[in-house]
Amino acid sequence: MNNSVKRSAIWISLFAIAFAFIEAVVVVYIRGIYYPEGFVFPLKPIAVHHLSTELLREFSTLLVILTVALLAGTTRWQRFAFFIIVFGLWDIFYYVWLKVLLDWPAAVLEFDVLFLIPLPWIAPVLAPILISILLIISGCLIIRKEVREGYFKPGRLPWILSIIGSLVILYSFMHDLDATLRFRMPGEYAWTVFAVGVLFLIAAMARAFVPAKSPLT
């Protein structure tokens, strides 16, 4: 890894950790308003103006992360890699900072609201952490391949596998409408569905980064 990429990686990592703290602080304030006794399910209805503000904040958060990635990278794939690395680090350290500030979660299997776009996502904390780890690993592998070989061309199949895996995982996050839209206790998390999605993502990574064996002649 050349010095320029190393510097960019260091700075975006520091940004992700600091930005995660800002995210955690905002959530501390939100929970202080709606869950002064401590965050627990079932969810409570949110005032319309608070909900619209939160949706705009989430969109702005993604835009900020994208902007940092675009500024840090010098090629299309570097920018994509930096985006998923920043997102992964930000998500992991968001929970680190919540643990520091609120001593929450008590366990990684506690449910949390992950996002609100386009529908509320809920899952045990462990699920987004695992996805974030995969994102960070993928981003690092993309950058390493670009630096060492000068290019990264994953082909069509890894994209197809990634899209399928992502949709399956999103379904596991958003399918419990009773909990998210009807304010009931969440049912048992669909770990099997989540695992299938993760396997698709791992297959995409393997196809993109592991060289195919030459056919015997």
- The strands making up the biggest β-sheet line up spatially as 1-2
Anisotropy-based shape: globular
Q: What's the story with the biggest beta sheet? A: 2 strands, antiparallel
**What is the strand tally?**
2
Helical percent range? 55-70%
The amount of beta strand, in percent, is under 5%
> Order of helices and strands, N to C?
HHHEEHHHH
Q: State the separation between the terminal residues, measured CA to CA.
A: 36 Å
- The Cα radius of gyration reads 19 Å
- Structural class computed from helices and strand pairing: mainly alpha
**Arithmetic mean pLDDT:** 93
Total helices: the number is: 7
Low-confidence stretches: none
Give a written overview of the molecule:
The chain has a domain at 3-151. Helices cover 69% and strands 4% of the residues. It contains seven helices and two strands; from the N terminus they run H-H-H-E-E-H-H-H-H. Helix 1 packs antiparallel against helix 2 (48-72), helix 3 (76-102) packs antiparallel against helix 4 (126-149) and helix 4 (126-149) runs parallel beside helix 7 (191-209).
What's the arrangement of secondary structure elements?
Blueprint: H1 3-34, H2 48-72, H3 76-102, E1 111-115, E2 121-124, H4 126-149, H5 156-174, H6 177-180, H7 191-209
Antiparallel strand pairs: 1-2
Helix pairs in contact: 1-2, 1-3, 2-3, 3-4, 4-7, 5-7
Key attributes of the depicted protein:
7 helices; 217 residues; single chain; mainly alpha
In short:
With 217 residues, the chain is mainly alpha-helical. It has helices spanning 3-34, 48-72, 76-102, 126-149, 156-174, 177-180, 191-209; strands spanning 111-115, 121-124.
